[in-house]
Amino acid sequence: MTEIDAIDRRILALLQKDGRITNAELAQRIHLSASACHRRVQRLEEAGVISGYVALLDQRKVQRPTTVFVEITLTGQADDILDAFERAVRAIPDVLECHLMAGTADYLLKIVVEDTDDFARIHRQHLSRLPGVRQMHSSFALRTVFRTTAIPV
Asked: What's one Pfam family the UniProt record gives for this protein (predicted)?
């Protein structure tokens, strides 16, 4: 793919704010013809810059108001240990994000739960069974100050 130019950046910024915007409205807002705008969006999709479109849900309205961050330290850093852990954690439907970290923990997980009982269930059924785990620390978010999915472009 060629470089992302200023017009592409404006398209990406607008789509991140409203993924349901029509091509006609998007074209109007960035001052392009509808066909030129559509070609640019298609090019960004085909290049994988736009990897998909999703609906963002309100955690509270789907009874998952509590965010838990789980720091995990493994027994080692060998590829087979990392691979086994990553395969297993991908299979846990409650885990929204898993990051390999540099720092005090090897991995950081983000989980949204109904309450402490729900987290206890997830811990008992899934987290405690993850391979290669030496230590686990969980922190409950008291309040989300702000959240965004928009990547600065």
From this structure: HTH_24
